[in-house]
Amino acid sequence: MPPLFRVLPYGIDTAEVTMMMRELLHLVGVGINWILEPAANSNRTGNHMGLQPHTFKDNISYLVDDIKEITGVDVHPTFNRKGAEVLFITPSADVFAEPGIYTAMGYLLLFEHIGLDYTFSTYASEGGNFGLFTSNEMMKKLNAKMYAEAKRLGVKWILGGECGHMWRVLHQYMDTMNGPADFLEVPKSPITGTVFENAKSTKMVHISEFTADLIKHGKLKLDPKRNAHRVPTFHDSCNPARAMGLMDEPRYILDHVVPKWHEMNENTIREKTFCCGSGTGLNTGEIMELRMRAGLPRANAVQDVNQRFGVNALATVCAIDRATLTTLMEYWLPNTSDDPSQTTDVPVIGLSELVGNALVMDGELENREQGLRFEELVTTETEG
Prior knowledge:
It is a single chain. Helix 4 (100-114) packs across helix 14 (351-358). Residues 1-8 have low confidence and may be disordered. This protein has helices at residues 14-27, 33-45, 53-71, 100-114, 136-153, 164-172, 174-178, 207-216, 238-243, 248-257, 288-294, 296-309, 319-332, 351-358, and strands spanning 86-89, 118-119, 157-160, 204-206, 232-234, 313-316, 348-350. It is mainly α. The protein is built from 14 helices and seven strands.
């Protein structure tokens, strides 16, 4: 790795430098399809998967059916509903692909649990901003869809799901590019009354901030023992952690939704977190060797807590991490158990999935036996 990327005595923002270099390359026709196609899809359909509005809605309906089967609870998401209090925007991978769909199921259970007045938009159906990887103009254009839909639907504020580059754009660029959003209100939790002053400018709150506030005020009925089969560690995604300082809220949530979890080495977390190895649009099969080598430091840190404490899950609040780290764990920590359905000893899990498992819902099955992955819930702590 070049010295510039290891030691930065002059405070050079290598991410910004890389963004400028990439924009110049795109102007001369040199790019990566894994970046260009998602950006084009987001521009055309509102999400990087290229899902049409009816398909986006149908995918969430499938998750609603799975939630009913697992928990016995009916959840009631709405779409393009004018007058809702909150517009919820999350990465489209959360409603399309594993393991993100389990995170989305956690969102749906949480919102049903607290009776949140929210709606999805099938037109601004992508939290991730692939313009961050292409050009400032594309970043601005894709980000503008959020405010445009919020204004069209007449919501009060915006709640965002678990995504890394989504939140770097929101935290560092959104207000400058497309603000001020004076037609929205400063976000205020309708459940706890907390005013999120940190979102006074953008009018948008991270799901981890929102959930941690609910837990702090005792608004969630949680049974951490439902996650006793999981002994997680937590990966600080580079954009939420280093770019916006979201480090304490996810850990506060973990403290309340699992019986126990373990930090990785202090030199590999928080501001010193390691790269997933495949972000910034590098999640493509053509460079698999580079990806696995780049992610080795993170894999080593996970292996350490796996061997010392029996950690068997890697929690994160980033959609790209859930995709890239899954491949990384399968490569460096392959399945050694007798369970053929497992591909790694340390599966990657969205934080909201753990929340969804722990929630005790009104009207749920009397003896709920399955987690959101249809796995058996073991309600006694695992050894480790």
